[in-house]
């Protein structure tokens, strides 16, 4: 399985996947930490987090997969949602919560 | 290491901008407001893609992060008044 196939498998088998630097417990970048925080505030309890610092192949591969040059990257039900700015903006205007509810993946906020 | 002015120049070279402001003084993290008529009809995701595309492979490598606020000219008219700019 090449890295593109691996990514496709991850984002289609897990409802919420976050490609980030570090882990949700120990984020190693402020932007990754911000997305983790927004997901928590949205009531999300189950996130499949992929630490791109553990694999340079994954770190490059995810940029190609989404045609998006930076980390973090959030996927909901296989769809690329955005990076830190977009996720925060969508949280502030309620779009993210709606998207999570529509996807049936929001927990109790 | 990059200056905000250089980032601004690169974005303007690759994208028609009605308004652009770039800030950031550590050489790797920047924030920008970009207003372009090209954004009409695009999702926020694609507006951000269009800006980041002007920076090519610098984005995510030499440039660690570019915080973005993108607006269509019509939306900017509203936001500009709200921000009192």
Which percent bin holds the helix content of chain A?
A: 40-55%
Oligomer description: heterodimer
Largest sheet of chain A: 4 strands, mixed
pLDDT averaged residue by residue of chain A: 93
Unreliable stretches of chain A: none
Instruction: Kindly report how far apart the N and C termini of chain B lie.
Output: 30 Å
CATH class designation of chain A: Alpha Beta
Radius of gyration computed on alpha carbons of chain A: 13 Å
DSSP, total strands of chain A = 4
In percent, how helical is the residue content of chain B? 25-40%
The major β-sheet of chain B equals: 3 strands, mixed
Q: Which structural class do you get from the secondary structure elements of chain A? A: alpha+beta
The total beta strand count of chain B reads 3
Structural class estimated from helices and strands of chain B:
alpha+beta
Q: Give the total of domains of chain A.
A: 1
Order of secondary-structure elements of chain B: HEEHEH
Query: Do you know the CATH architecture of chain A?
Result: 3-Layer(aba) Sandwich
| CATH domain fold name of chain A | Glutaredoxin
Shape of chain B: globular
Span from first to last CA of chain A? 37 Å
Order of adjacent strands in the largest pleated sheet of chain A: 2-1-3-4
Binding site for [2Fe-2S] cluster (chain A): 29
Domain Glutaredoxin (chain A): 16-81
Family (chain A): Belongs to the glutaredoxin family. Monothiol subfamily.
GO molecular function (chain A): 2 iron, 2 sulfur cluster binding; disulfide oxidoreductase activity; metal ion binding
């Amino acid at each position: 399985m090449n890295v593109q196939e691996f990514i496709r498998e991850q984002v289609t088998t897990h409802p919420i996947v976050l490609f980030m630097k570090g882990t949700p417990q120990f984020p190693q970048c402020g932007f990754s930490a911000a997305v983790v925080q927004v997901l928590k505030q949205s009531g999300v309890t189950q996130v499949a987090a992929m630490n791109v610092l553990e694999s340079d192949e994954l770190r490059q591969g995810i940029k190609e997969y989404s045609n998006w040059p930076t980390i973090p990257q959030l996927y909901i039900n296989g769809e690329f949602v955005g990076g830190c700015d977009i996720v925060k903006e969508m949280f502030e205007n309620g779009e993210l919560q709606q998207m999570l509810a529509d996807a049936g993946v929001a927990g109790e906020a | 290491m990059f200056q905000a002015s250089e980032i601004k120049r690169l974005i303007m070279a690759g994208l028609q901008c009605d308004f652009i402001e770039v800030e950031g003084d550590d050489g790797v993290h920047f924030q920008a407001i970009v207003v372009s008529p090209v954004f009409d009809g695009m999702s926020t995701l694609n507006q951000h893609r269009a800006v980041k595309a002007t920076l090519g492979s610098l984005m995510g490598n030499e440039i660690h992060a570019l915080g973005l606020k993108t607006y269509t000219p019509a939306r900017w008219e509203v936001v500009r008044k709200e921000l009192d700019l």
